[in-house]
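User: I'm writing a tutorial on reading structure tokens. Could you give me a worked example: one chain, its sequence, then its tokens, then a sentence or two explaining what the tokens reveal?
Assistant: Sure. Here is the example chain.
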Amino acid sequence: MITLVMKYRRKNSISIKSFIEEFGEEFSEHVKEKLMELDSRTFLTRKEFENRLDIKHVEHLKYDCSNGLANSGTAKQMKEYSYGELEVVEGALYLSEKSFESKEFVEAPGIDDIYSALGSEEMIEDNGKQLKKLDENNIDYVVDTILSICPEVSQKYIDIVKGMVERSNNR
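And here are its predicted structure tokens:
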């Protein structure tokens, strides 16, 4: 008799829809609906913690982040933007003070303003990060502001996805 053992491997990149399915049991319907507005432009990535996810653009767009150093002969530093970091603690949704940053990623301009604008009544610290609670009272502002900063997807991207969907429907 052969026994198959499969190890659970968490996905490091997930859609907003999958995020809601995985963590959103206690989110209100309005919070879920508002988060879904991010789904067509963004996806989520996680590194160290299963419940902490960074918001990234689906096209992996890169921006010059050399802060004027390019004019001094230094090579351009092209990085992908992160549009915030979500964390779920005990069923509640939070926005982190800072997004994950590395050689490849930097927080998009304006994202820190979103965190700063949120009230501090329901603020916690988790795994070394300051977090502010997202709920019915502030989710519209947070998502609308992220959407105002995060670019629309390109027509080329839309055409590629449309072609993939058509091919999968023809099987």
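What the tokens reveal: The chain has a mean pLDDT of 88. The helical segments are 16-23, 29-36, 111-117, 139-149, 155-169.
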